[in-house]
Amino acid sequence: MKKPIFFICLFFLVFAGKTFAEDVARVGDATYASLAAAVSAVPSGGTVTMIADTEVTNGTISVGKTFTLDLNGKTLIGNFTGSYATVFDVQKTSGNLTIEDSSEEQSGKITCVDKGQYIILISVHGMFTMNGGTIISPSMLQRQRPFWLSMVE
Prior knowledge:
The protein is of the alpha/beta class. The chain is 18% helix and 36% strand.
């Protein structure tokens, strides 16, 4: 009788107060704890579907392939510590990002916290298509520029 009580106590000591990461995105049947991991795993031509609201807090998500981001009624927030950071960097020649929102409410959105941050950087020959969802940017409200278009080859 002492062993089960010991293991139950040990379980609560080890896991008490810990939170487990909620998955935020899905590619096919696989789920991911970060949007960056899902983007890395999606095959070219595939779809990343958001399954929870999420923040991108460290590093830009590089888009070097063709894929669709389905906001699915969720909110994606860019919340970086530095200025002039971007959520997505659509890279030259190989980057092709399509954003859509398959939710019935069409309530999916992408925003960022700081007015010095941008949502999408589109490099020369990179492609971006928006079929649904909303982009709300403090940069857009202040300077009418939610996108940063780079002409660097």
